[in-house]
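Propose amino acids for all 773 sites.
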């Protein structure tokens, strides 16, 4: 960085307002117009961070053309390359990646955004010694960014008088926002520089939403010009304002002018640092009127308990799915830890993981106590949320848990992760349908909060969420095909959600699987996983030569050139094929029900994999002693099915799975347990073989063809699993040994192209990882 100071013999009554000074730099091929900042008295400074080392010329241009000291011709400066170890300075400033999905440094290195929130961090509510302590703590925990405001949250403090707008140099402004105090910024400088020295990117907020009304638009522009001049040479992100809402069509709109201010920042910044505004919760999340002016979205799904997670999912999905606009999506503020007597670490963990698996490029942790710098040596904020001090809140559990979660992600090519709801069953609802809309999505958290004093949990938020009949407390998945799968399994209380089924394993790819415990970061080895291989063929039938191999237990059928035709409820089973474990499939018409029968003992005892045409769903039914179970693993078909499709089922031991495949797509149920119901009451739990067959309903004709039975392939057993347990910080946590633990991880279901691990070791939320080896 090149830095210089210019002095003027001429004095000005209000230098901040009376004079604009620019320094024009060039290397002969590129040029930069860098604003200078008033240092106090008759001095102005400039900071310039060129893209590379070398010789640059510069000239000074002042709005007062008669001031010879501040209007000077070309001078030469040699800028040396940075040779130190600081990764922020070595890799260069930030930009949006070519994909539009994440940030990277100038050298192309991806930048992972794990932010902490210190809105009052430039004031001396947080002393300089405390600032250094907090910085060291966040660096040790793996944070890469800090959200920090030049003028803090005006909801809690009144600008510019309250302590949050003062530091060792005094107030940032005078009472009428006429005179800026450079000494305030001299002390702010060392805090911004200290963050950069700690390899933490400053995310600089200009002011909160009320400030624009207090300052006026022209003063706000001058103020932002000053911020750019002082801090633009650092690797930073810009946030024009906090809780901005500039929707001209909404009577709730606040102060006019935020869109104009964002446009001014973009035009003035010579480095084009990534720029955004901090949004309000939906439906007031249309922050500015010109989408093209911001480089990324900085969401605030709110602090409304678990409803905020729902709002987060919808916001992320709908923005991620836009076909005309791609931007990095950052969850900037959600469910601050302990705020309002709830929002504890389990909510923060879920918010983090559901953000990262639903398209986010980063996430910001926060709690009000450190965010607003509560201490005992200053007057209380006008609004207070706790009697705890910042140093007590610094070690809230989620602050560490999100650090180790981010470290886990950064051990993989996280920037290539894509939401994959089709890889998991059961899974939480998503809103990833491609759409051309830019903004104004149908999400309303604020409105649903106002419906009644105690609205039901499921009513939050209103709008698009209500179109999905599903629970967000279900697993979510993201990954990289053939390389990595990450599944978050939320906590649903005791006894927990159990094991999800991982779908669509790629043929020939071998994964190593493990559970990751998210409070300590302990890995539990689950061994190798690969898609099941087809076993030997036992029987095939196209039904063209007649049905001599079949017995009718119910109804009748007719062999035709098209296949086996039924016109009434029909159950027929193969005469000489008895199997315990088998993979069975048949092609059939999709306008009528289809059933594949396995382990048939008699008409009152069998298992059937079923496709229901009327409800467009698949699942497994177990018939025992003449009584049918419900539809186990019921899975709606998420696409319009072709006229004919192939129904497949695999039953192995205690487990079964069913899929429906047409020419284009596949729908697969989760792996379900059938052992409690599969056998007649007089048969011991040991599995008994049964006959294999077909079931047709009585309300539609059906035509079966291409029937096939295969034995299940034998899966290779795992080699020795790692039993020793260490947490993310290297602390030994014991070993998986003892009764019920010696074989843990070896019991797994792999059926068709799906995998179900053992139930997690104990009830809470877990992360399931599959990494290709």
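Proposal:
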């Amino acid at each position: 960085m090149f830095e210089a100071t210019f002095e003027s013999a001429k004095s000005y009554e209000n230098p901040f307002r009376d004079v604009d000074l620019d320094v024009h730099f060039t290397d002969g091929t590129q040029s930069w117009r860098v604003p200078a900042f008033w240092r106090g008295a008759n001095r102005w400074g400039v900071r310039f961070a060129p893209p590379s080392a070398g010789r640059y010329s510069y000239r000074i241009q002042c709005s007062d053309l008669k001031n010879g000291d501040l209007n000077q011709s070309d001078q030469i400066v040699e800028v040396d390359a940075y040779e130190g170890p600081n990764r922020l300075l070595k890799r260069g400033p930030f930009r949006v990646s070519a994909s539009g999905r994440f940030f990277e440094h100038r050298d192309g290195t991806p930048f992972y955004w794990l932010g902490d929130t210190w809105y009052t961090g430039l004031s001396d509510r947080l002393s300089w010694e405390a600032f250094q302590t907090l910085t060291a703590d966040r660096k040790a925990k793996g944070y890469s960014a800090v959200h920090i405001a030049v003028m803090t949250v005006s909801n809690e403090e009144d600008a510019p008088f309250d302590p949050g707008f003062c530091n060792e140099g005094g107030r940032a402004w005078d009472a009428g926002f006429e005179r800026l105090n450079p000494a305030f910024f001299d002390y702010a400088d060392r805090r911004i520089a200290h963050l950069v020295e700690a390899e933490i990117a400053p995310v600089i907020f200009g002011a909160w939403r009320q400030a624009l009304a207090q300052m006026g638009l022209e003063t706000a522009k001058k103020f932002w010009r000053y911020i750019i001049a002082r801090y633009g040479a650092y690797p930073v992100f810009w946030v024009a304002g906090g809780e901005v809402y500039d929707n001209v069509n909404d009577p709730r709109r606040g102060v006019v002018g935020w869109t104009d201010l964002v446009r001014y920042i973009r035009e003035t910044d010579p480095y084009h640092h990534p720029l955004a505004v901090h949004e309000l919760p939906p439906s007031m999340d249309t922050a500015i009127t010109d989408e093209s002016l911001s480089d990324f979205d900085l969401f605030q799904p709110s602090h409304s308990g678990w409803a905020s997670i729902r709002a987060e999912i919808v916001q992320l999905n709908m923005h991620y799915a836009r076909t005309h606009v791609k931007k990095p999506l950052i969850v900037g503020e959600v469910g601050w830890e302990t705020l309002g007597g709830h929002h504890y670490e389990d909510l923060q963990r879920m918010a983090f993981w559901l953000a990262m698996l639903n398209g986010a490029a980063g996430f910001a942790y926060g709690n009000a106590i450190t965010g607003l710098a509560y201490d005992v040596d200053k007057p209380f904020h006008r609004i207070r949320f706790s009697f705890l001090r910042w140093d007590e809140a610094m070690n809230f559990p989620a602050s560490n848990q999100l650090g180790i979660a981010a470290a886990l992600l950064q051990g993989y090519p996280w920037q290539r992760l894509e939401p994959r709801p089709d890889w998991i069953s059961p899974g939480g609802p998503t809103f990833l349908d491609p759409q051309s809309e830019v903004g104004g999505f149908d999400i309303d958290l604020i409105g649903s909060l106002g419906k009644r004093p105690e609205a039901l949990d499921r009513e939050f938020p209103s709008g698009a969420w209500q179109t999905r009949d599903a629970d967000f407390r279900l697993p979510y998945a993201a990954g990289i095909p053939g390389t990595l799968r990450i599944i978050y399994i939320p906590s649903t209380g005791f006894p927990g959600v159990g094991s999800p089924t991982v779908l669509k394993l790629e043929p020939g790819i071998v994964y190593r699987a493990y559970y990751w415990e998210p409070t300590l970061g302990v890995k539990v080895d689950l061994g190798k996983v690969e898609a099941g291989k087809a076993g030997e063929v036992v029987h095939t039938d196209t039904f063209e030569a007649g049905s001599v191999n079949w017995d009718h237990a119910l109804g009748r059928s007719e062999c035709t050139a098209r296949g086996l035709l039924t016109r009434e409820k029909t159950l027929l089973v193969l005469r000489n094929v008895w199997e315990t474990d088998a993979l069975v499939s048949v092609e059939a018409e999709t306008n009528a029900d289809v059933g594949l029968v396995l382990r048939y003992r008699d008409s009152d005892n069998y298992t059937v994999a079923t496709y229901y045409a009327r409800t467009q769903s698949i699942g497994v039914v177990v018939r025992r002693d003449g009584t049918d179970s419900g539809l186990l693993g019921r899975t709606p078909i998420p696409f319009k099915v072709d006229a004919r499709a192939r129904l497949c089922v695999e039953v192995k031991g205690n487990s079964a799975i069913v899929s429906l495949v047409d020419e284009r797509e596949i729908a697969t149920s989760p792996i379900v347990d059938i052992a409690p119901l599969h056998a007649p009451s007089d048969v011991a739990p040991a599995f008994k073989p049964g006959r294999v067959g077909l079931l047709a309903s009585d309300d539609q004709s059906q035509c079966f063809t291409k029937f096939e039975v295969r034995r299940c392939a034998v899966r290779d057993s795992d080699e020795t699993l790692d039993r020793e347990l260490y947490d993310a910080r290297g602390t030994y946590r014991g070993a998986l040994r003892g009764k019920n633990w010696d074989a843990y991880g070896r019991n797994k279901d792999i059926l068709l192209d799906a995998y179900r691990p053992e139930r997690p070791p104990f009830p809470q939320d877990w992360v399931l990882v599959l990494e290709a080896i």
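The radius of gyration is 32 Å. The longest helix spans residues 182-197.
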